[in-house]
Amino acid sequence: MKGNKNLAKEILDKLGIDSTQKVNTMSGGQKEEWHLQDALHKNAGLYIFDEALKGLTTRQKAVTMNVIKEYTDGKKCKSLLHMI
Known about the structure:
There is one protein chain. This protein has about 80 residues and is α+β, with helices and mostly antiparallel strands. Helix content is about 45%, strand content about 10%. It has helices at about 5-15, 30-40, 60-70; strands at about 45-50, 75-80. It has a two-stranded parallel ribbon with strand order 1-2.
């Protein structure tokens, strides 16, 4: 499924990720967020996220949850968080 490049950049911007940065130079948390945008920018009807917040700071967890809520609004979304 192809995605929208403008939407991908928009999501990365909201996550605070430089869209020109090479994935192999990103931290673990940044890679998690990159994979999140990779799913969200394809505008699917169903999203399943397994530990989408793993490796993120407390601030980034809040930002990421807001992005997930925004881009899955009106769609089916399941997210496994494993948080205590």
